[in-house]
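Reminder to self: tokens first, then the designed residues, so the page reads top to bottom the way the pipeline ran.
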């Protein structure tokens, strides 16, 4: 678990027990959160978002605002487990 501050708000970054990562990967994720910065204010309690980090994969975050500002890494999906589908253009 890590604590960090953005724009005067104190956040907690925690990792779900089912997600295994080493301390370097955890620090990489923490630094990504610091770069996102004030954009964290756009996420309401109960929402989720994903960031992509080349060496780790797609990282799923759950947002809690009550009783504290908490981000939980709930899952990590390595790139070899991604499926991307091209959607047809909506233009006619």
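Designed residues (92 positions):
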């Amino acid at each position: 678990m890590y604590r960090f501050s953005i724009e005067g708000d104190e956040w907690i970054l925690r990792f779900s027990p089912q997600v295994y990562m080493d301390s370097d990967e955890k620090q990489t994720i923490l630094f990504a959160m610091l770069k996102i910065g004030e954009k964290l204010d756009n996420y309401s309690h109960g929402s989720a978002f994903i960031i992509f980090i080349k060496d780790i994969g797609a990282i799923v975050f759950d947002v809690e605002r009550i009783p504290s500002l908490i981000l939980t890494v709930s899952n990590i999906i390595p790139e070899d487990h991604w499926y991307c589908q091209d959607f047809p253009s909506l233009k006619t």
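Residues 2-81 form one domain.
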